[in-house]
Amino acid sequence: MRRKDREVTDINGIEEILLKCKTCHMAMVDGDLPYVVPLSYGYRIFDGNRLELYFHSAPEGRKLDVLKRGGRVCFEMSYEGEPVRSETPCDSGYYFASVIGYGKAVFIEDTEEKRGALSVMFKHQTGREAAFTDGQVNSVCVFKIVSTDFTGKKKPRPGA
User: For 129-160, what is each residue's pLDDT tens digit?
Assistant: First the structure.
């Protein structure tokens, strides 16, 4: 990371960013072309250094085809705050925070593990608990990205 002064390495700081973000942009390689999709997600952190991101989708489609061919991905979540206003255009921009990392997609087949992943997603997206029926669980594809290679970056508003 070029701007070490903006790097967030503390897992609590990274989780603070993850809590505020609702969309994960997941990048893959399809043949020789990049392919990026925005996805709703949920997450869990294990041992302070392993991040699991949970996703659901229709049971078929391009994204799943690409993931099944290798499963390696890059992911990014971010949120923007208010604009940074400056007389000099090059000093303008936004206060922001982001998490970027790399990992591998793992498809979840076990019904109870899928149910748990969907519950984590729903809680993250809505702040509410939910129960999922077997029919709901089995009607979607659920996968997770497992990563130990991720970092945060933040340009906070002064005094924030």
Answer: 999 999 999 999 999 999 999 999 988 766 65
Q: How far apart are CA 146 and CA 132, in angstroms?
A: 23
Residue 155 forms part of a structural domain: no
> What is the domain extent for residue 28?
4-150
Overall number of domains in the chain? 1
- What is the dihedral angle through the alpha carbons of 55, 145, 156, 94, rounded to the nearest 10 degrees? -70
For the residues of 98-143, what is the DSSP string, one character each? EEEEEEEEEEE--HHHHHHHHHHHHHHHHS------HHHHHTSEEE
Cα separation, 53 vs 103, in Å, equals: 10
- At 140, which CATH number? 2.30.110.10
Residue 77 lies in a domain: yes
* pTM (predicted TM-score): 0.89
